[in-house]
């Protein structure tokens, strides 16, 4: 039993089942995601298409047997679902590599392994006249946020602008997290930790904006080139190794779902460690996610269908 008196047995089933369901989904994606997800998507398309075909056949009175539009609709929707599945795998892999490669370049630069040049000073505030060109794009926003977004949209935000933007984003994120935590019935300590995660995310975004605008041109070019190379590599892998790409994406997403659902369940049980103790753990989460995803890929590759013997 925790300090709040919450135990697994004392929690309502409605609060345990969603976390357990997400945990189960994550485990399935890790160990058999490519095979199960493809079949599930095709089955959903077949069922939905059959229902639509039956409904249209009855409504339009086509003068054909009821099974004809049902079968046609099922086949068409199943094919469309299979295409959407492949496109989703492709786009996800492209996005993952387009983000991962620039992160690798930034890590190399931040550790000083490659010298891209000195970081520049924070830019000065943009003149008021330049903000007029983006007034329409920020219509409807709070005045202080609209004024702060002006220099960002012009490509040269000041440090002060980043502060205002982060404060407004933090306020909105905080309001959303408060609503979510109230609906989930989290304790005050869990709310505090959840808000800390939100604040950290906002600070990370602000830090990224500030570092981008003071980075040397060579580093900016390298980051853009890494993003382009990652996107092209993802596209190439997704088109030439479709089975491997599906296993990679599903194992990666399954690992993220497992870790995320475990963290949320720990928050609901109020057993999360204090913020100072959780910080070192969070730093190791990317490595844990990578290890879990790699194990999932190995399992999927080990139990993949045997290749067809064409010599028989």
Write the SSE topology:
Blueprint: H1 13-60, H2 67-110, H3 128-131, H4 143-153, H5 159-184, H6 188-214, H7 217-240, H8 242-268, H9 275-302
Counting helices, strands and paired strands, the structural category is: mainly alpha
What is the overall shape? globular
Main sheet attributes: strand count, strand direction, barrel closure: none
Number of domains: 2
Q: Any idea what the radius of gyration is? A: 25 Å
Total of DSSP H or I helical runs spanning 4+ residues? 9
The overall pLDDT, averaged over residues, is 73
Query: Using DSSP, what is the number of strands?
Result: 0
From N to C, what is the helix and strand string? HHHHHHHHH
What would you say this structure looks like, in words?
The N terminus and C terminus are likely disordered. The chain has 9 helices and no strands. Helix 8 packs antiparallel against helix 9. It folds into 2 domains: 179 residues, no CATH class; 94 residues, no CATH class. It is globular and about 75 Å long. By secondary structure, it is an all-alpha fold. It is 77% helix and 0% strand.
């Amino acid at each position: 039993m925790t300090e709040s008196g919450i135990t697994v047995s004392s929690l309502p089933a409605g609060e345990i089942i969603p976390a357990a369901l997400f945990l189960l989904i994550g485990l399935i994606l890790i160990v058999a995601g490519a095979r199960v997800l493809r079949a599930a998507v095709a089955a959903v398309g077949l069922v939905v298409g059959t229902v639509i075909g039956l409904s249209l056949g009855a409504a339009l009175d086509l003068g054909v047997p009821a099974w004809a539009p049902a079968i046609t609709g099922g086949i068409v929707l199943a094919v469309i679902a299979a295409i959407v599945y492949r496109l989703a795998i492709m786009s996800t892999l492209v996005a993952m590599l387009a983000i991962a490669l620039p992160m690798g370049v930034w890590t190399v630069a931040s550790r000083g392994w490659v010298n891209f040049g000195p970081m520049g000073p924070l830019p000065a505030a943009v003149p008021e006249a330049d903000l007029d060109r983006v007034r329409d794009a920020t219509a409807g926003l709070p005045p202080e946020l609209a004024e702060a977004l002006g220099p960002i949209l012009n490509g040269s935000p000041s440090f002060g602008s980043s502060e205002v933007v982060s404060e407004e984003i933090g306020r909105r994120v905080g309001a959303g997290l408060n609503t979510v935590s109230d609906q989930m019935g989290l304790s005050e300590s869990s709310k505090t930790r959840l808000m800390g995660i939100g604040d950290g995310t906002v600070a990370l975004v602000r830090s990224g904006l500030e570092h981008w605008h003071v980075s040397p041109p060579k580093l900016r070019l390298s980051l853009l080139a890494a993003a382009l190379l990652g996107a092209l590599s993802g596209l190439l892998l997704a088109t030439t190794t479709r089975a491997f790409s599906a296993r990679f994406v599903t194992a990666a997403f399954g690992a993220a779902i497992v870790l995320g659902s475990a963290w949320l369940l720990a928050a609901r049980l109020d057993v999360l460690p204090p913020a100072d103790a959780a910080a070192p753990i969070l730093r190791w989460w990317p490595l844990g996610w990578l290890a879990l995803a790699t194990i999932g890929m190995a399992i999927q590759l080990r139990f993949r269908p045997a290749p067809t013997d064409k010599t028989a």
